Amino acid sequence: MDLAELTKVRDRYDAEVRRGAEGPHVERAGRVVRMSLPGWNGVVWSDLDEDTADAEIAAQVAHFGAGGRAPDGPVFEWKLYTHDRPADLAGRLRAAGFAPEPAETLMVGRAADLAALPVEPPEGITLLRVTDEAGVDLMMAAHDRAFGVERPRIKEAVLAQLREDPDSVEVVVAMAGEVPVSSARMEIQEGSAFAGLWGGGTAPEWRGRGIYRLLVAHRARIAAERGVPYLQVDASDDSRPILERLGFGVLGVTIPYIWQG
């Protein structure tokens, strides 16, 4: 994609996935769109300027803090994109007590192109589609091996999605025999042109064998079958070069700003 197309795609992503987010856990309040999910709370869109930013930040801190409706304590994320306004929004968040986590690259690829990638499972690897708690436990085991940390909130969120709206999430685990060695998921918002790719971590001893590429192509085929034209990823520095080789383009940078009270 050239720069002009990427800019149009980014504007569409903002309009559909962020500003136009839908679902029972989405709320529009003042100048922000926020979510309260099992295991995750945050602001995903804001329409602010120099005159409104500080008051809106304070309002969200009050909502998600001790007097708010966060289901699991006073912790939430402001998902900042570097093209958000005002230009000094990051500094205002820091001044309000937010701490930035590592930046990620917002990337997008065409589902049809990625679905056509010539990919075969590495020897000894099979893919398991997750539909229940036992499968989610396998996903979490692969995730823990890949990233070296336990994140129970991810399990809570995925279980809630499978329970409440199974069509909105696809989860797959790469199995080496009976051992989960990699996992990934895809979230699809009804009516949106974008499906979000999440996870994609592989156990260290299985890296470099094409499993990550396999999981991208697998999810791309599902998205293409469901008529979703684009795949979106918040890519780490490790994932970005792989995704660029697969044909993903860069839309910008996103930084999670965390408030812990």
Quick take:
The protein has helices at 3-19, 53-64, 89-95, 111-115, 133-147, 152-164, 211-225, 239-246; strands spanning 26-29, 32-37, 40-46, 76-81, 99-100, 104-110, 125-130, 169-176, 179-188, 194-202, 230-235, 249-259. It has 261 residues and is of the alpha+beta class.
Q: CATH homologous superfamily name of the largest domain?
A: Gcn5-related N-acetyltransferase (GNAT)
Report how far apart the termini are.
42 Å
Q: Assign the CATH architecture of the largest domain.
A: 3-Layer(aba) Sandwich
Number of separate helices: 8
Count of individual domains: 2
Order of helices and strands: HEEEHEHEEHEHHEEEHEHE
Q: Please provide the count of β strands.
A: 12
Reported for the largest beta sheet, the result is:
12 strands, mixed
Q: Please mark out the parts with pLDDT under 50 across 5 or more consecutive residues, or reply none.
A: 67-74
For this structure, the CATH topology of the largest domain is Aminopeptidase
For the residues shown, what is the average pLDDT? Answer: 93
Query: Which radius of gyration do the C-alpha atoms yield?
Result: 18 Å
Please state the structural category: alpha+beta
The portion of residues forming beta strands comes to 25-35%
Helical percentage: 25-40%
CATH top-level class of the largest domain:
Alpha Beta
| Overall geometry | globular
EC number: 2.3.1.-
Pfam families: Acetyltransf_1
Protein name: GNAT family N-acetyltransferase
GO molecular function, one term: acyltransferase activity
